[in-house]
Records
---
Amino acid sequence: MNKLVFIALFFFLFQPFAFAQYEPNYDESKVPEFKLPDPLKTFSGKKIRNAKQWEKKRRPELLNFFTQNVYGEVPGELNISSVEVVEQSNNALNGKASRKQVELTFKKDNRSLSYTILMYLPINVEKAPVFLGYNFYGNHTIANDVNILISEAWSRDNPSFGIIHNQLTEQSRGVRTNRWALDEIIGAGYGLAVIYYGEIDPDKDDMSDGVHPFFYVDDQQQPADNEWGSISAWTWGLSRAMDYFQKDADVDASKVIVFGHSRLGKTSLWAGATDTRFAGVISNDSGCGGAALSKRRFGETVWRINRSFPHWFCTNFKNYSKNEEALPVDQHQLIALIAPRPVYVASAEEDLWADPKGEFLSAYYASPVYKLYGKEGIVQKEMPGVNRPIQNTVAYHIRTGKHDVTDFDWEQYIKWADKFVK
Ligand code: GCU
C-alpha cells in the first residue's frame, strides 16, 4: 500500500476514537478530580485575612492573571471624541418612558469608530438606575418600536430573522423583545440601555476590524499574545458607555447594573471585574469562560471554546486548552473580583453546555471574599431547587428551560436589584 493511502486510512479508521476523547462530558461521575485555587491565598501562599489585604495583594494579582492570560489587556487608552444624540422622544412606550439614541464616536489617527446606545428611561424618575447590556442582533430587535435605528455593522447571518449578507434588516425589528422585559424594567423604575455588540467588534475571527486595529503599530495584524480578544474589546465598549453615563444627567451613574447573556454574560462579568464603577453585575447562562468553573470540564471546555471562538480570549489562554489543571485561577475568582458589589449568576436547567452546577459553585466559592466585607454570598454548597432563587449580595438561580433570557430571569434580577443596588 502506498504510504500516503495508509496514513489516510489510519486516520479515517481511528478518527472516531480521537474525537470521542474530546466529546463534551455531561456525566457528573466523570468530572475529573481537581483542586480549586483558594481566593484567599496569594500565589506565593500567603493567607489573606481581611478586605485590606485582599485589595492590596490578592485582588491585583488575580486581576493581572486574568488580564494577561485569559481575556487580554486593552493596549491603550481611547476616549470618546464626540457624543451625538441622534434621536430622542419623551413619549415612548405609551408615554411611560423617554427614548434616547446616543452615538459615541472614537477617533485615532485616521480611524473612526461609532456605536449607538439605545436608552429607555422611566418618565417619572429623575435620575434613573440603569440596566446596561449588549444585544446579539441590533438595538431594533429588543423592542417593537419603529423609531429604533438599524445598525449598519456586520452581523452573523440568521435567515429566520431576515439577516442575510451580514446585514441587519427591518425584518428583525422586535424579534428579541422576549429577552428584554422592557415594560417590567421601566415599570420598576429602571432604565434600560442597550448596544449592538457588533458595532464595537464584529464577532468573527478577524482582528482587522472593530476596535482592535486602533492600537496596531506599523503593519501589526493582530493583538500580542497577552492583549485583548473580543470579550475584552466588548468590555471596553461597556466602560466607555459608563464614561458617557457619568455625564448624562438623566442617569444615576452610581447605579448601573451590567447585564449579559451567554458570551455577553462572560463579557458582563469581565466588565464588572475590570471596572468598579459598575454597581452590579448579572451573568445569564454565561458558561465556559464566564461563571462556570473551567476545571470541571463539564459541557464546553477551554479547548473547545478556544477552537470554536479563537478570537474571544487572548492568545495566552490557549495554553490552557486541554490543560485546565495548569490554570492557577478559576472562574470563582473572576466573580470574587467583583466583590463587594452585588453579582447575580443565573443558569438554565437544560443548558448543560454552560454547566449550571459549575456556575453555581463559582458563586459559592467566590463568597468568602464577600464575607471579608461583611456581605452575604452563597452559604450552602447544595444547589437550590429549580426556580428557587437565592438572593444575597451574591445571588444565584437555576430556572426551568433552555439557554435563553426569560421574563422569569428578569423578575428575579429586578427584585434583587431593588434590594441590593437601588
Ligand atoms: C456558544 C458558545 C458558548 C456561548 C454561546 C453564546 O454556545 O460555545 O460559550 O456562551 O455560544 O454566546 O450563545
---
Amino acid sequence: MKLLLINPNTTAAMTANIAEAARAAASPGTEVLAVQPSFGPASIEGFFDEAIAAAGVAEQMRLAGDRIDAAVIACFGDPGLDAAREATRAPVLGIAEAAFHIASMISTGFSVVTTMTRTCVIAEHLLHKYGFERRCRGVHGTDIPVLALEDGGLGSMAQIEDCARQALARDRSGAIVLGCAGMAGLCAALQQKLGVPVIDGVAAAVQLAQALHGLGLKTSAVGDYAPPLPKAYTGWAAPLGW
Ligand code: 2AL
C-alpha cells in the first residue's frame, strides 16, 4: 500500500527522521511517501503555527488526491485532519488521535509528555474533541523546543524520562504517550527505562492506517466528510480550490 506521511512543519531533517520512524513501524509491502508543505513554520508550537501548518497539510493532501491508500499527519496537534478527510477518500490518521486510541486499549489511564508547556492546551483540546478526556490523566510539558529534538531526541532523553516518571506517579497512569513526532526515536529506549508502555503516535498511526486499509475501509464520503463544495479560491490558495 502507498502511505502518505505528512510532516506538517517545514523542517526537512525532521521529515526525514519521522519517515525513518514510520518505515521502521511499517509492515513489508507498505511504501511510505514522506512530504512536507511548501510553506509554513519550521516547527509547530502554538495556535498560529498550527493554523498555517493546517493549510500546508491541505496543500499536500490536494496534491496527493486519491493516488494514495492512506495518510498520516505527523504532528501531535493533528493540524488539518478534518480538512484532509474531505480531500481524499483514503483513510487519514493524526498521530495524537492514533496514540490516544492505542494507549486507551492497553491502560485505564495514560499521561502525555510533550514539548513546550504552551502546546499542552492543544493536546487537551484534542482529548476533548476525540472523547478521551476520561482516559488521559495529565498532559505535561517539558519546555523542550520541537527542533531541539532533531538529534532524535537523544540530547533531551533525561529531561523527557524525568518528566514521564513524575507524570506516571502524579497521575497514577499506566502508559505514556509521546507528545511530538520528533520524539519517535526515543520510544523504545524510554519504554525500557520506564517499564510501562510508551506510545509513539507515528508508529501507532502507521499501524492503524495499515489496519484500516487491510479492512478495506475508507473515509465516508457521506455527511460531514463529504468532498469540499466547488468554488473559487483566491490569492495564494487559488490552486487549492475545487
Ligand atoms: C509538534 C510536532 O509533533 N511537530 C511539531 O512541529 N510540533 N508537537 C508539539 N507538541 O510540539
---
Amino acid sequence: MVGVKVVGLTGGIGSGKTAAARYFAAQGVVVVDTDELSHALTAPGGRAMPMLVARFGPDFQRADGALDRLRMRELVFRQPSARRELEAILHPMILEDSLAALAKARGAYAVLVVPLLFESQAYRDVVDRTLLIDCDKEVQVARVMQRSGLSESQVRAIMATQMPREDKRRLADDIIDNSGSLSELALQVEAKHRYYLSSLARARSQ
Ligand code: ATP
C-alpha cells in the first residue's frame, strides 16, 4: 500500500525529466525513478539477472554479471518477440520495486518518474496526479543530440515513435515548460512543489 500521494512525472526523450526530478529531490521530496530501478535490476547481482540469463542465455550477461545492454538492444531491435519477453520479465519487477519504494516514502507526496506513464495503465493507476515535463521540439532535438552524440535524423526518428507532444499535453494534469534555462526549470519545480504541498495535503485530509 502506498501511503503518500504520488505525482507521476513524465515527458519525451530528453525533455528534462531527470533534471526536474533532481530539483524535486532538492526540495526534500522522495523521488522514485523507474529507469534507475530498471538499471538496478539488471546490474551485477540484479534481481532480474537469473531470469534474463535463463531466458536469453549467458551470452547476454557481461563478465561483471550485469546485463549486456548493447547486445540486448540489438536483439530486441531485430526481434519484437524478444522485446515483449524482456518487458514481460522486467516490467512487473520495476512496478513491484516502485511500489515498495513508494510504500517507504514519507512526506506530503512523492514523485514517481515514468517515461511511458500515459502509455501504461498500471502506472496511471498508481499516481494521483500527472506532471508533464514539456519542451519545445527544436530545443529537445538539440539537447538530445548534444547529450547522446546521435544525429539529428536519428533523434527525430526516436521522437517520431513516442506519443505526440500535443496528446501528452492534453492528458497531463500539470505541465512544466522546460524550453528555458535550468534556473527557470528550478523555479517552476519550486512553484509546483508549493502547489502540491497545499493541494495534495488538503486532498489527503478530506
Ligand atoms: P531521457 O528521457 O533521455 O532519460 P530526460 O527527460 O531525463 O531524458 P534530462 O536528462 O533531464 O532529460 O535532460 C536531457 C539533457 O538536456 C541533459 O543533458 C540535461 O542536462 C539537459 N537539460 C535539461 N534541461 C535543461 C535546461 N533547462 N537547460 C539546458 N539543458 C538542459
---
Amino acid sequence: MTLDELNDFTVEVPSWAYGNSGTRFKVFARPGVPRDPYEKISDAAQVHRLTGLAPRVSLHIPWDVVDDWNDLRAHAEKLGVRIGAINSNLFQEDDYRLGSLCHPDPAIRRKAVDHHLRCLDVMRQTGSTDLKIWLPDGLNYPGQDSLRGRQDRLAESLRTIYDATDDDHRILLEYKFFEPHFYSMDIPDWGTSLLHCLALGDKATVVLDTGHHAPGTNIEFIVMQLLRVNKLGAFDFNSRFYADDDLIVGSADPFQLFRIMSEIVSVGAHRPESKVNFMLDQCHNIEEKIPGQIRSVLNVEQALAKALLVDQGALATAQREGDVLGANAVLMDAYETDVRATLADRREERGLPRDPVAAFAASGYADTVAAARVGGTQAGWGA
Ligand code: LRH
Ligand code: MN
C-alpha cells in the first residue's frame, strides 16, 4: 500500500457542525455562525477548499429545509461541493415522546414513516443517495412497553420506508447504546441494526458512530465483522472521553482511530468502490467550528496514512508464526510514524496549503462572515 491510496479518499462533513451546539447546560452562540443551509454549505466548502478532502456535506431534515432544493444544490456545486447523506430527525417532536417508528400508536408510526418518505423526495432533488436513519426511540423504565413488540413495529415501519426507496438509494441505519433513553434503546447495538438491515435487503447497511458504544468496546472488531458481511455502510466519526461527546475525531483516542482505519485498509475498504461513506458527526461547542472541521478531516487522513504504512506482509508472517510482539510491533511502527510532513508535501504538490488551519486563519474568512452575518437567527439544534 502506498500513500497514493489517499488520492481518492474523501470525508463527508455534517451541516450541523457549523451551527451552534452545546449541552443541556449551555449552547454558546458565536459570531459569524450560519443562519441557513446556504451559509452552512459556504462554511463547509472552506474545509474542502483548503484540504481537498471534504467534497460532500450531509444535511439534516428539518434543520436544513429550504424552499428550492435545486437552488441549494446549485449553490453547493458552485462552491465545489455536493450534498451528501440526508439525515432524518425523529428526536424533536412531542408526538415522539414514547417513540416514533416503534410507537404503540399506528398513527404516530405513520407520521414518522411519512417524514422519511419526504426525506426520500429531498434526496431525489439534491441528488443524494444515502438516507441516514438514527432511531432515538427507547424506554426509560422496565415494563414501560414490550421490547419485542417495539422491534416488530420497527421492522414493519422500516419495511415501508425501504420499499419506497429508489434503486440507487441506500438506507444507513445507525445504532446507539444510550441517550436519549436510559433503560433501553430500540437500536442499541450493531447486532440489532444488522438484523434489521439483513431483514430489509441489500440497500440497507449499518452506520457506526464512534461515540455510540459502551466504554471499552472494541470498535475495530465491529468494523471487521460488518465488513466481513458487507454491511458497513458508513461511519459517523467523532471521539469521546465518556459518552456521546461528539468531539473532534482522533482527539480523545487517536490510537483507536488508527486501529479502525487499519481494519479498513486491511480489506481495501478505504477505496471509493467499497461504498463505505466516511462521515463526521461532531459538535464544536466551544472551539472554532471551521478550523475544528479542518482539523477533523486532517486527523482522519492522518490515521488512514498511518494505516496504509502497515507492512501487511510482515504482519501476516508474524501472525502466522504466532510472533505476538512481532505482530504488534508491525502495527505500532506504522502508528508511531510521523506522517505530517509527508501529508503537507502531498498538499503542496496538489496546490493546497501545507497547513490548512493556518491558511484558514490567514484567509480572513471568519472575520468576513462575522461582519456579514448580522441579524437573523443563528442555526442550531433548536432543541
Ligand atoms: C445521534 C447522532 C445522529 C444524528 C445526530 C446529530 O446521537 O449521532 O447521527 O442525527 O447525532
Ligand atoms: Mn451519529
